[in-house]
Amino acid sequence: MKYSDIIGVMxxxxxxxxxxxELLKVLPSAKYVYFGDSANxxxxxxxxxxxxxxxxxxxxxxxxxxxxxxxxxCNTTSALTYEDLKSEFTPKGLRIFPLIxxxxxxxxxGLNESECICxxxxxxxxxxxxxxxxxxxxxxNLKVVEIPxxxxxxxxxxxxxxSKASHELVRExxxxxxxxxxxxxxxxxxxxxxxIDLLSKFxxxxxxxxxxxxxAKSISGIIKNTNATSDVDFYVTGDxxxxxxxxxxxxxxxxxxxxxxxPEFSSV
Length: 268
Ligand code: DGL
What we know:
By secondary structure, this protein is of the alpha/beta class. The chain is 41% helix and 18% strand. The chain has helices at 17-26, 48-65, 75-80, 82-89, 100-107, 123-128, 130-138, 152-157, 164-179, 196-199, 211-220, 240-248, and strands at residues 6-11, 31-36, 69-72, 95-97, 116-121, 143-148, 184-187, 208-209, 231-236, 258-261. The strands form two sheets. Strands 4-3-1-2-9-10 form a six-stranded parallel beta sheet, sandwiched between helices. Helix 1 (17-26) links the parallel strand 1 (6-11) and strand 2. The longest helix has 18 residues, at 48-65. The chain binds D-glutamic acid. D-glutamic acid binds at residues 11-12, 15, 41-44, 74-76, 122, 125, 153, 189-191.
């Protein structure tokens, strides 16, 4: 299949589908290729060099498909490697849209001085301080508490929603949110919207902010709908059946969808 007007969507696993879902709402007739690097997840506890190596492999693969626009549907990638990817791949003709910038900007609106925003994220995203940095550009007086949540991605990828350990882990992290009297909680990892039922046992649903909506909105301001019918092809480095099982709980995958098992990247 030769592509034109295709949007590449990339993540370590099924998390980026929360972004694809929002993109399909605002750009329903675009063609999409989704890359889930599930053989290498979680990205959130890996080094920048490792993540950059995986990202470059994915972007080079997208280039071979003729993809022109990339939605980085991964906060960890947006936080750690976006600038490097932008300088290497923009000259090659790719337009790259990161998650954190548009999301932080929108999330910072409408709060009073010194009110608190909590950001739930991977260890790497929290360590980068990127959300706090971007939020404070908009409103320097807001209090931003970045909360690393190792283990949340595994709950989603392994469908452990009902386990006692998962509930305990979510309760422990939400305790920090409650102690800080957060007015807004950013789901700063694209896997976390899958956990909304669990998270909202501890705080009202309305305070959770999904960055995928901001990214989709900002992309739809730049890319226009075509008259074609929408179409998604999936490329997965891990087990496609496991990917489908986890994805199906959140995203409708029709029978005629094309799933391709990719070879794993050789090591860094
Ligand atoms: N879903 C990704 C993010 O938004 C990465 C999660 C992971 O692989 O650790 O950060």
